[in-house]
């Protein structure tokens, strides 16, 4: 089994496409997390788990996944974008990032995933100073935790500024 022992997160909102992909990767020995149809669900699936690779649809229910991609980069998790023909190009910070085409050609996609896993294993066997510099986005990104704290503060501040009706229970 070429992917034996590898843990792969599949982030795809189209079950018709995701199910056969998950089955194919599982047949090759991978442990599959997903398919995750939303960024929130993908984050919950990851939790404290460590995955070897993630496959990210670039748009989930009309929403881009690049914040999740940034978070995966921060965590050092290898991933590939699944791109549908006719979609807009990747942001500049992800230009040249590994991609697979949608709809998936299962044989070709599996080969691409196996090649990427093999490449990453070879890179991680090299001393750190030889790791490819292109693995991190070119622009700095805030950590997910900091972003969540800032969001919570902004919501709290907005709620404090909201006028309350005379009958509300708030003082």
Could you explain the architecture of this structure?
This protein is α/β, with parallel strands linked by helices. Helix content is 40%, strand content 18%. It contains 5 helices and 7 strands; from the N terminus they run E-H-E-H-E-E-E-H-E-E-H-H. A 5-stranded parallel beta sheet has the order 2-1-3-6-7, sandwiched between helices. Strands 4-5 form a two-stranded antiparallel ribbon. Helix 1 crosses helix 4. The longest helix has 19 residues.
Itemize the secondary structure elements and their pairings:
Elements: E1 7-11, H1 15-27, E2 31-36, H2 39-46, E3 53-57, E4 59-60, E5 63-64, H3 66-75, E6 78-84, E7 99-102, H4 106-124, H5 144-161
Parallel strand pairs: 1-2, 1-3, 3-6, 6-7
Antiparallel strand pairs: 4-5
Helix pairs in contact: 1-4
């Amino acid at each position: 089994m070429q992917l034996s022992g590898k843990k792969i997160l599949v982030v795809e909102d189209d079950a018709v496409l995701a199910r056969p992909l998950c089955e194919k990767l599982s047949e090759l020995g991978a442990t599959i997390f997903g398919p995750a149809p939303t960024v929130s669900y993908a984050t919950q699936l990851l939790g404290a788990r460590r995955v070897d690779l993630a496959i990210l649809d670039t748009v989930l229910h009309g929403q881009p996944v690049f914040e999740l991609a940034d978070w995966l980069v921060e965590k050092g998790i290898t991933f590939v974008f699944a791109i549908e023909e006719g979609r807009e190009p990747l942001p500049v910070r992800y230009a040249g990032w590994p991609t697979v085409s949608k709809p998936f050609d299962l044989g070709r996609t599996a080969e691409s995933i196996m090649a990427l896993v093999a490449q990453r294993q070879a890179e991680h066997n090299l001393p750190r100073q030889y790791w490819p510099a292109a693995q991190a986005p070119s622009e700095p990104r805030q950590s997910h935790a900091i972003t969540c704290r800032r969001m919570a503060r902004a919501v709290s501040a907005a709620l404090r500024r909201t006028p309350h009706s005379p009958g509300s229970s708030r003082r």
